[in-house]
Amino acid sequence: MLSHPRLPRRRFLSAAAGTALAAGVGRAAFAQDYPSRNVHITVPTGEGGGADRDARTFTKVWADHMKTNFEFDYYPGAAGQVGYEFYMQQEPNAYNLLFSNIGPEVIMLTLQNVGIDIGKDLVYIKKTSTEPMAVWVGPSSPFKSLEALVDEAKKRTVTVSVSRLPHPASIGMLALGEATGATFNLVPFGGGNPSAMAAITGEVDCCALPLANPISLGDQAIVLGVFADRNPAPDEANGAPAVNDAMGTKLPPLTSSRAWGIHKAAIDKYPERIEILKTTMQETLDDPAYAEAVKASGLPTAFIDVGNQEAAMAEAEATRELAIRYKDLLTGG
After folding, report:
1. Are 73 and 43 contacting, i.e. CB atoms less than 8 angstroms apart?
2. Which pLDDT value is given to residue 18?
């Protein structure tokens, strides 16, 4: 378990006012002046990636509702572990937030024994979007269908670029191989952009990432299959089929949601601030300007998926169970 050093709280009130603060007068003040400065956001992946795009798309509209500015720091490494460990060392004051990708990051926390307990140390308080995983190829690939790719993988090892091994997309490809007798070799590239480039240039046979990635690449990517009950964006993803429909498999849906996370200690200490965060996040998601911002970023609005704290935490628990179920495939153990 990480230790979370407590920084000394600023003394706004004189000692003579201490009794009034203890009686609850101070709580309203904490809410009234919040936010009184910029909100800091930790992104546990690299600058310029999908998480950065989605966080900035959201905060562009959120700034109108929170009436503040946002600062970003990026901490890629160890499948998100570096960013989570950095975040947990920040002061739990509701001015420090984590922009999360629940799927890969909960898998990472489950498999890598980081010592951060979702629910006790950190809580996801709002989901903003959900998308399924997809397998796709570059424009010059000889594989024009998922069946062709799987057939080839029954003859030889097919290479698959992934952003990181602890990821729902990794589970999808390994489970697909297990179900069909195909052999896939996952190659982690440390991020969505380099993973995509490897597929486009032919360095690997195919790529497995969240569906937003190939959609954002336009005609540079041909989606072969979607790890979901249906393709939620058929117009943008060349009508690609669900993997189970194409291959007759029974794989579980493999999705991931973007979500805002915060220290559990901040929730306990500053409930009024947390309520302001949740209220303004919901206002942002309800604002037509947000859907327009998503469109402008090149993504389908079908990915917008509003979920409260209970929904976000339920997804985190389901993902944890999925990671345990497929642990042997992901670790080779």
Report:
1. yes
2. 38
